[in-house]
Structures are given as structure tokens and as C-alpha cells.
Amino acid sequence: MSVTDVEHPASHIHPPPDTFIKKYVFSLDHKVIAVQYFLTGGLFFVLAGLLAELMRAQLMGPNNHVLSVATYNEAYSVHGSAMVWLVIIPVLTGGFGNLVMPLQIGARDVAFPWLNMISFWLFPPAGILLFASFLYGAPQAGWTEYPPFTLQMPFGTSMWCMAIFLIGVSATITGLNFLVTIVKMRAPGMTWTRTPLFVWATGVTAFLSMIATANLSAALAGLFIARTFGVPFYDVGKGGSPVLWQHVFWFYSHPAVYIMILPAFGIVSEVIPTFARRPIFGYKAIAYSSATIGLLSFMVWAHHMFTSGLQHWEQFAFMVLTMLIAVPTGIKIFSWVASLWGGKIRLDTPLLFVFGFLSTFTFGGITGILLASVPIDVHEHASYFIVAHLHYVLFGGSVFGIFAGIYYWWPKMTGRMLDERLGKWHFWLMFLSFNATFLPMHWIGLHGMPRRVATYDPMYTGTNEFVSVSAFVLGLSMLFFAYNALVSQRRGEVAGPNPWGGRTLEWMIPSPAPYYNFKDIPIVLSGPYDYGKPLPYANVSQDLATVPVH
Amino acid sequence: MKQDRSQPLLDGGFWRAVIVMAIISAVLMYVVVVFPIDRLFLPEASTVSVDIDNLFKFSMFFGVPILVYVNGFIIYFAIRYRLKPGEPIDAVGSSIHDHPTLEAVWTVIPGVLMVVLAVLSYFIIPMYYPTGQATASAVTMEAIGHKWYFEFRYPGLKDSVMNEMHLPVGVPVTLEITSSEATQDVATGAVLHSFWVPEFRLKQDMIPGMVVPIHFTPSEIGTFHIVCAEFCGLGHSHMWGSVVVQSKPDFDKWYADQQRAEAAEAEGVRPISLQGGDASAGQTLFNAKCVVCHNAAPFAQRKVGPGLADLFDDPDHPDLVTGKKASPNNVADILEHGAHGDIGVMPNMQANGITDKDIANLVAYLQTLHK
User: Fold this and answer.
1) Which CATH number do you get for residue B221?
2) Is A122:A167 a contact under the CB 8 Å cutoff?
3) Looking at the structure, do residues B175 and B222 belong to the same domain, yes or no?
4) Each residue of A175-190: pLDDT tens digit?
5) Higher-confidence position of B301 and A290
6) Would an 8 Å CB–CB cutoff place A379 in contact with chain B?
7) What ipTM describes this predicted complex?
8) Is residue B5 part of a domain?
9) Which among A70, A426, B250, B370 could bridge B246 via Cys, Cβ 3.0 to 4.6 Å?
10) How does strand B149-153 pair with strand B164-168?
11) What's the pTM?
């Protein structure tokens, strides 16, 4: 590529691709790649969700034989791995990052469209590898795969290493790509304090993906080498240690927790001002707390290991650093709630999902503080309390955030509206059955039921029956969304460029966005959330006004 | 576009909502304080469990109002400030986008609470986790995790005690916790386990090659579960033991019994009588315990150990894993003492928690499978 190719004049627009393959398969267009991520992630969401329903069927009673013990172990291991690496991370970064971020910064695409395409095409093979591991003895030790047990498992665990490694490479590349895009390609006039909060969140996530995921790759390579070539990384007798894996794994996987929640924070920060029709409260506090959380997330990994024989002073240091994260997280939650104060609130489906997010994520945050305290964690660690806590932050947080984003940006993605009535049914059924599924798990966990078991003491039977039935309802609630999505493609109301009356740049162009996004690159004159003031953009078509038409 | 500045934000409705939430918070905080965890939930059976529960209550005490106010304000704002029918579709809300005092309050208050929780936690850690200085304990003993049972070694007892740990009430104990397979190759044997007694509120992973001491004083007489809390393979779901906390005289009697049994065993091996084995009782026990590792199916349908359907009449496998002929007495010998197979280890009768009578029943049942 010569220098002259790089310096496109701003008015230069490429023609759209003309073949099916270039347009929909090996596409370079960030909006098409986003849809590819959504569809692939959606498929794995269904598969991993069905595994969860199988697990709940097994746990309907003690000594059930719906699944054999080994199959049950495989089911929860693949369920956890798939939900983390094939659903939440790709959908939030590859999906929403690609769909929204370039539009919000007024760019025509990401910085490296080719890398973007490669990132996506690493994702389906990874998913196929992970699910194909069932044919060769899938991993059984949960999504954390602690050795030495994992050294004794059949080939499926090596396939798990390879699958997650591919996803890791994909996430690293996407992180680099997005970081460059956000730093270098924001529209003229879009200073850091005029940048939409979803872009802030995506930027911090991209930084975490780029730095932390390399560490996951190292951990996986270590496990693979130890399994395949017998290098004794985890063998005490030969100078290794089983705890080594835990340190390296969590040094990635704690930042990964924020990779999985920060983009959802970004979605919440976009939805609230649009539907409350007022500026977001504490823009700078929300933006800077994202950055603070990102940095702190690298210093807390050993709080997953309080029962792994750490020194007293190590436990204390990690406890204090973990509790410190509660402060910027609290700032965000309080700012979002305050953003509703004195608004003109329209209770449409995206906002309902945000309310669900705020309610469940705050609950998960409080139990997270309990778990940060070493003595409390020593009782609750590895029990169903942890299972409940992590679903409150990853399902109640990330997945509710994902659905808020899907309902919010669906018109921009497809040009048509989703049905509000079905959306509200979906929300209420999902919100109630979510709490009915995971709230009782705190109870049985505190009561002494460990995680990762295919059977349990009969004293927990009643609660487990209730949880299983709720989990089936939770699964059924997703059908409302599936039906809604299918029907809206044919019969949905045509959305128009700006159905919600939003003020960020993605609403200043037609829906679905044209191939080149912006005919002229917009010029940004001030921050995006000043409802009641004139639009802060030059070079955009002012007749796409900010009046909600929906 | 019109901006609605007519309504003051701190009106009567706001303060009424704050007061309602304060009342709800106060009621819930009161419930947190007076809730008898010990009686209505899970017994507090070690001295440190009381302190850990108090820390839990402290966190919940301040967590509850945060939950009430976050959820309460969402509901209140959603109702109070919703776009009402008849209002213009392009109405916009308040333009306040910052309030430094309010933001300082919700930064400082959680910060202070975190500091207090950290300090309180700091003083509780040494109560169960001996640091630097040796902790004064009357008993120092070992707990060792196996696939899939717990082994306990008492000072003064030659043989280990399996799965059922006995402790005297009110006597400080230091338990040195590890995983049995420290010396085994990680590629075949060693796994992590975790020693958890929910009633003691204590948990420590059992890690190959690491010995981690924890320290506690049982404070209640009773029998409590020991649960394995770290995934360790097919038997993990069933890896349960128990800790029997007894009065000092009862404990001394149990301890003396153990010593007497050792002395008796040193004199001559005690043969197990297979007379009067009850096959149906054996079947019940088999389906409760043995099926974790064995199928009642032909040899080839193995789990951890072989299928046992044709145990006494399998021309391909005339000998047992011990090399002896498959006879009722030799099978009883394996049930009593355990055996090492090529995949896993068959624990002995103490680890499996079965009695002489159970062995007779199981052998009788296995003979009915013999066709």
C-alpha cells in the first residue's frame, strides 16, 4: 500500500461490493460484520442455553439420571465457556462495538477493515471446535479448567484450549483495531469529553482486550503444552505448581469480567439519556470511572483464590483493591439513577431492560462486595452463592445490557422497529424468571451446597425444583424475542433515521446506515447529550430532527 | 423544543418517596440485625463462625439501604417523571448534568464503608488463618483429600480415620490441609479438592504439594457435613464426609476405642463374616454408593472401575484387580481394604463409610448379578 492510498480525501467514497460473497460473507463493512457477530453469537447463545436447561433438568431432584455425571460435567463446562467466550465477549465487542462505535464517532469504517474481517472469521471455527469437543470427551472442570485434573482428561480439553486461544486472538486483534479507530478516527471536533459514553466504554474494553487477552493465550498455551508434551508446569514433584494456572488464568479472567460488563455500561449510558430526554448525569464521572475500573481490574485477580493458600498479606491486599472497585462502580450506578431525575421518561423496551440491568447488577455488586471480604468469601467461595453472584453480574448485567442494546439499535441495524408489546412481554417474563432462577441459589449456597455437582443432599430438593422450573420459564421467555425478531423483518414498522429521538451521530443518518455511513464527515461542536439545545453537529442533515417519532 | 423548568426537583413528592424508602430500609436493616442465622438458617458451630456471620450481617446492613434506594428511585422516577398523555412528544427534561456535592457524597460514603469492612475483615482473618506466630492449639492434625474421600490423621493414632472426623468441643484445633496425591504424577493422579464445613464457615482448598493450616475451635456438639468444594472428577458430587463434635469424655472414649481397635488389629486380622448377607439391602447400597464408579453391567461398561454384573463368572476376567481369583471372600477383601486399579483407586471400607454387615450384603447382591 503506498502513501497516497492512505491519504484519501474526505470526499472519496468507495463503491459498495457487488458480489454476494464480498457483501455478506467476507465483508469488510463493519455493519455487516456486526450482524455476522450477532447471528453467530446468537446461535451459540441458544446452544449454551440449551445446555443450561439440560443441567437444570438433571438438578430437578437428587440422584437424577437425566444426564450421566460425566455428561453433566461436560454440559456445565461448555455452557460456561461458550457463554463467556462465544456469546458475551463477541456480541458486546464484535457485535455492538462494530455496529455502533464507528457510527458514533462519525467514521466510515474501523481503522483496519481487513483485520476486522479476520477477527470475525476466527470466531466460528472456535465455536465449532468447542462444541465438537463433545465428540472427543469435552472438558469437565468448568470454564476455569483448573489443573491438575485437566491434565488427565481426553483430547476434548486440548480442543477447548485451541478454541479459546482462537477467540483470544480474535479479541486481541479487535481490541487493537478498535483502540486505533477510537484514538485516530473520531470526527473533527469530537474531543474526549464530547465522545459518546458507549465509545468511552468500548475504548477501555478494547485496551483491556488487547493487554489482558495475551495473558489468556499464554495460560492456554501453557496448559496445552503441559497436556501434550508433559512439561511439568503444574507438577509439584518437578518444581511446578497447580496454583500457577490459577494466577495466570485469573490475571486475564478478572479483566475479562470488565470486558464483559463495560460495553454494557456503555449501552446503559446511551439508552438512559435518550429515553429520559435529558442530559446524562455526571458525564465525566461515568467516563473516568470506566477508565479507573479498567486499570484496577488488573490488580484484583487473586480475589478468586482466597482459599488457594495465599499468604495473609496477599489476601488483605487483594481484598482492599477489590473493594476499591466498588467506589467507581457505585458512582456509575448512582449517576445513571440520577439521570432519570426530572426527565421526560418514555418507558419503551430498551429502557425497561436498562432498569432490569440496574436492579440486578446492583444486587450482584452488593454480593460482590461480600465476596471481596476474605472471611466471608472463605465460607461462600465455590458454593452456589458464587453461581448466583456471577449470573447476577453476567446475566443480570451483561445479558440485560445486550438486550437493551438490541432493542435500542435494532431499527438502526435493520431499518424496522421491533414490536413493543412483545418486547415488554419478553422483558417482564425474563426479569421475573431470572430472579426466580438465581435469587434462591444464594440461599442454598450459603446453606452448604457446592457448585459443579450433578447431585446434592436431599435437603436442597425443594429449592432446586423451584430453580429448575424458573430456569425453564427463563428459556421460554427468549421465544418472545425470537418471534419478535422474525416478524419485524417482514411486518415491522419502518423505523426512519431516528425513531427514538437520539442525539448521537448514528441517528443522524438513514436506517439502515448506508454503505459509506456518512456522505460528508460530520463536524462536532459540543457534547452529545444536551437535550433541549440545538444539535451540536455541522455537516449533518438537520432535517433528521431529534423528535422521537415512535 | 421546550424545556421544562417549571417543576422544582426537590418537591414534596420527592421527600415523601425518600421517607418511604427510609422506612423500608429501616425495617429490612432491623431484620438483618435480629435474624437468628444460627437457629433459622445454618448452625454456627465454630467460634469464628459467629464473627464471620457478624461481618456478613454488617455488609448486608449497609447493602440493604443501597438496594432499596437504587430500586426505589428507579421506580419513583419512572412513575413520577414518565411522559404523560397530552404532553408534547418533544418535551425534554431537566438540564442538570452535574452536582459536585451529591457526587462527592456517593463517592465518599461507599469509600468509608469499604474501609470499615476491610478493617473488620483484617482482624478476622488471623482467627482462622494462622499467621507468622504459632497459634496455640491443643490438637494439630492433618486432613488429606483423596478421590473421593477425606482422610484424617490424629497424633497418636497409627491408622488414619476416613471420612468421619471426631473433635472435642471447645478445644482449639489446627488442621493441616493438603491433597493426598502430592507424590503422585499430575498426569494420572493428583487433583485439587476443598475442605468445607458450612457450619464452621471455613473452607480451604486441598492442593497437591501445599500444606495449608487453618485454625478453629468447634463450639457446638453435633454432626456436620464436610463437603468437597473444588471440582475433583466423577466422584466430586458425592464427596461428602462428616465431622462429629463431641463432649470431651465422649471424644476420649472414641479415641480410646480407636487405639484399642489398632491394638486388636495388630494381633490378628479380623475376618469378615459373609453369613446372612441380604441381597436387596446390598442392592440399595450399591445404587446409592457404588454406582458412582461401577455399573451393574458387564465388565466392559466401566466408569472409574469395571462393570460388576458378571463379577464371579466372567471367562475373560477370572481374576480380580488384586490378582486373586474372583471369589466372594476375595471380593470382600477388596471391599474392606480397597485396591488400586488402572484408572482410579477403590477406597477402603472406612472411606466408603460401610460396615462389616454392608460388605456381606454387597457380596450377596453381587452374587445375584452372577448368571
Assistant:
1) 2.60.40.420
2) yes
3) yes
4) 999 999 999 999 999 9
5) A290
6) yes
7) 0.92
8) no
9) B250
10) unpaired
11) 0.89
